[in-house]
Structures are given as C-alpha cells and as structure tokens.
Amino acid sequence: MDLFLQQLFGGLATGAIYASIALAVVMIYQAIDHFNFAQGEMAMFSTFIAWQLLDWGFPYWAAFFACIVISFLGGVAIERIVFKPIHNAPVLSHIIVFIALFSIFNSVAGFIWDYTIKAYPSPFPSETPFETTLIGMHQLGMIAIVLAMLGAIYVFFRFTSVGLAMRAAAANPVSARLVGVSVDWMLALGWGLAAAIGAVAGMLIAPIVFLEPNMMLGILLYGFAGAVVGGLTSPGGAVVGGFLVGVIENLASLVPFIGSELKLTVALVLIVGVLLVRPFGLFGRVVVNRV
C-alpha cells in the first residue's frame, strides 16, 4: 500500500509538470492550430538562463521570476519576428520552422553551456516537517507552485480585460477584430504566456532530471499526451490530462511486464487510444466547420 501511495503522489508531482507543458501546448495550438514542437526546448533554454543567473550569484527566487519575465518577452519576440511573417503560409512551413527552432535552441544551449549534466538546486528543504517517505518536499513544492500558477492563469483569463480579449481572439478572431481587439498582439501575448509557463515547468523539473540540453524531450511527449487526452480545445482539460498522464505513468511502473523501461510507451499508447476512441479528447469539444 505504501508503494502504491508513493507512486500516486509522485505521479501527481510529475503530472503537475506535464499539466504545465500541456497547457502551454494548448495555448499555442488554439492560436495557430499547430503543435509547437519546440516548446520543450524553449523551456530548457529558459532553465539554462535561470541556472546562469544563479551561477552569477542571484538569489533563487530572483532568478526564478527574472527567468519568467525573460521567457515571456522571448516568446513574444519569437511570435513577432518568426511567426507573424509566415502567418498565412502553408502548414508544412510552420512545421519546418518549429523543427528549426527545436534544433536552434538545442544547439545554442549546447554551444553556450555545453552538453555536460549540471545539478540544478531546489528551493525546498530536503526533509519534510512531518515523518513520511511517501512524498518529498520538492514534489510538494512542485505541486503547490503549479497549482498556484494555474489558479493565477484562470483568474487572468476569467476576470481581466486582457485575458478576456485573448480568449475572444482565440475563439473567434473575426468577431474579436470587429469589437476592437488587436488579435495579432493577443496572439503574441499567448506565445509569451506559453513560454513563461514552460519556463516554470523546466525550472521545477530540472532538480529531478538534472540540467542538460536534451532534458525536456521525453517531458514534451508527456505534455503532448496530456494535451491530447484532456482535449486540444480545452485548457482546463489539458491540465487534467497532464495530471492523469503523470499518475497513470507512475502507476504503470508497478506492473511487472511494464516497469520503468516502458513508462514513455504508456504516454504514446494513451495518445493513440484517445485519438481512436475520442479524437477531440476527454474534455474537448467537437469543432464543426460550416461549408
């Protein structure tokens, strides 16, 4: 029973990270109808920036929030400089650019910081204030920070004028333009938020997987799985899907013939299974185009 609870709590902790990546993926998908294959590498690059700030002597939380701001501005810049000119280009052009960004971020990170594994510090104490081996303080901290971030994002989209404008621009760009919403800038802000969310995920997962240019590849696949399972048209569903993937992945490792070696396969099976049975996800809506 203790092993089951340990894997369950661990799954919730890693699921929080998958939920963050899934939310970032869905935010960009709703804006441009494509997956951002470079989302993980953007998060990795942001985490290296935070590590560099720490290496220069910045306090942890100063580096943490500075990295979020830098990532937000970087996401806006990428949309303005790279994707705005090709907004009406064919889908294949967008995919090629995403793959190019993936390679660029990975190569530049390796060039600047090399490919050696680096230890990334955790801001949380190593010992819990209560006696338990079921979950560590870093895992509890991960869950708390991600839930606080998701709550702030919900309030932003639900109760602020900019958040409502971003929702309107994503749901119906034509109508949004008619009421004076700058759809182009709402799209850029969406990229910035997605980059900032990915940065938080990268900084929280780095103490567990260690910091190196390829650290986010598997995590991005889990994020994609969470987004597909929850629904590509539902940000809230993507969050739930991320938590589900984390829990299922951890519990699957208890099955003898699966173990830890096939944990990534579980995420891929989830993607295929949901697409076969419910292509729009557990919480997504069916999109009907009038012709």
TrEMBL record:
One of its GO terms (cellular component) is plasma membrane. It comes from the Bacteria. GO terms for molecular function: transmembrane transporter activity. It is found in: Cell membrane. It holds the Pfam family BPD_transp_2. GO terms for biological process: amino acid transport. It is a multi-pass membrane protein. Coiled coil: none annotated. Keywords: Amino-acid transport, Cell membrane, Membrane, Transmembrane, Transmembrane helix, Transport. The chain crosses the membrane at residues 6-28, 60-79, 91-113, 133-157, 185-209, 264-288. PANTHER family: ABC TRANSPORTER PERMEASE PROTEIN, BRANCHED-CHAIN AMINO ACID TRANSPORT SYSTEM PERMEASE PROTEIN LIVH. Belongs to the binding-protein-dependent transport system permease family. LivHM subfamily. This is High-affinity branched-chain amino acid transport system permease protein LivH. The lineage of its organism: Bacteria, Pseudomonadati, Pseudomonadota, Alphaproteobacteria, Sneathiellales.
